[in-house]
Amino acid sequence: MLVKNQILSLQAYQPGKSVEEIKKDYGLAKIVKLNSNENPYGCSPKAAEALARSSSQCAVYPDGQAMNLRTKAASHLGVNEDQIIFGAGLDEVIQIISRALLTPESNVVMASPTFSQYKLHAVIEGAEIRETATVNGHHDLESMLSQIDSQTRIVWICNPNNPTGTYINETSLKDFISRVPKETLVVIDEAYYEYVTAEDFPHSVKLLENNENVMVLRTFSKAYGLAGLRVGYGIGSSSFIQKLEVTRLPFNTSRTAQIAAEAALEDQNFIKECVKINEKGLKALEAFCEEHQINYYPSQANFIFLKTDNGAKLYELLLQKGYIARLFPDGLRITIGTEEENEQLLSDFKDIVAHAHTAN
Questions:
Q1: Is 260 left (phi over 0), alpha (psi -120 to 50) or beta?
Q2: Which residues contact 98 (CB under 8 A, 6 or more apart)?
Q3: What's the pTM?
Q4: Which positions make up the signal peptide (predicted)?
Q5: Residue 138: beta bridge partners?
Q6: Which residue, among 234, 207, 294, 223, has the nearest Cα to 66 in the 3D structure?
């Protein structure tokens, strides 16, 4: 069968080995999963209870407009209900945006490294990809501006950035947006927004009031602990969101996902507690890196990126100890776990670092 030429250059997403496979391969009784930036404490008890109550409704199609969730999310954000579009995780929202805007004649601008789905969908739509290398893990906004021309349809800003964890402050982001042509969409992906503690982090939803070419993305997969249910959403101008709705599949978010997300929004105390614990674990890991002279990027997310040429060795040594991290060409990304997992990781990491140095 004939498919788009650009698809021939891509590979389907390859998940790593399962926890059970790793246990068997390494003879381990327990594995600590620190590779996918999930909330180690799961979801709010309120969300879990709502899920249990929803099990009897699985034979009925979900609300295609997710009205109950839409109403609660709009109230939480302080926006109109018609300013929100929901997707099966942010992956689908990114796909919807790309499908609606990109053509082979267009281009997209993004940082490198950043979230891989921006590039994937640009390739699928045949658009030109203009990547700008990060500087010390941060978006190089000036270089990104220089890449924008009349054919630039989307500029992707991941804030905090995945995989580096770094962020763009409010002053810098406002200045950047003011210099982007109004016909170019600026997408601010804030998947890790709830974990941010920096006081100068942008109030990005407020930027929508005066910038119709800005869209903000949020998700229930990270701090809200609902990654397995797949609920993400975008916030933008009402007129633009209605255009995007044309490319959204009907019933794309399940009934159970909507119900759980509604309940999760109501339990902000759970989020606050998770953020507090995450910050403690993050600071402890950063202090460890300082003590052992390991290069890292200061993070505003629920993970830390170790900048090292020895990432493959560290990854393997972590596996031997029972920890799954995420390997990148220039380093290693480690999700912050529970308090108990973090304490054990730091204890084991002392041996790991010693072995890694010895190997060199």
A1: alpha
A2: 118, 121, 122, 124, 125, 127, 154
A3: 0.95
A4: none
A5: 135
A6: 234
Question: What's the CA gap between 76 and 68, in Å, rounded?
Answer: 12
125-150 pLDDT, tens per residue? 999 999 999 999 999 999 999 999 99
State how far the Cα of 144 lies from the Cα of 159, in Å rounded to an integer.
Answer: 15
Q: 67-77 and 255-265 helices cross at what angle (nearest 10)?
A: 30
163-to-66, 90, 109, 296, 297 alpha-carbon distances in Å: 31, 16, 17, 12, 10
Mean pLDDT of the chain: 94
SS3 175: helix
Compute CA distances 221 → 19, 44, 201, 304, 351, whole Å: 20, 12, 21, 18, 33
Residue matched to tokens 């009934």: 255
Query: Exposed, middle or buried by CB within 10 Å (0-12, 13-18, 19+), for 125?
Result: buried
CA dist 33 to 61, 90, 195, 335, Å? 33, 21, 19, 8
| 168 CB burial (10 A radius; 0-12, 13-18, 19+) | buried
User: pLDDT of 73-122, one tens digit each?
Assistant: 999 999 999 999 999 999 999 999 999 999 999 999 999 999 999 999 99
Token pair in block for residue 13: 């997403």
CA distance 22 to 148: 44
Would you state the structure tokens that stand for residue 1, as one six-digit string?
Answer: 């069968």
Token code pair at residue 116: 């891989």
Q: How far is CA 254 from the centre of its chain?
A: 20
Residue with tokens 């991941």: 158
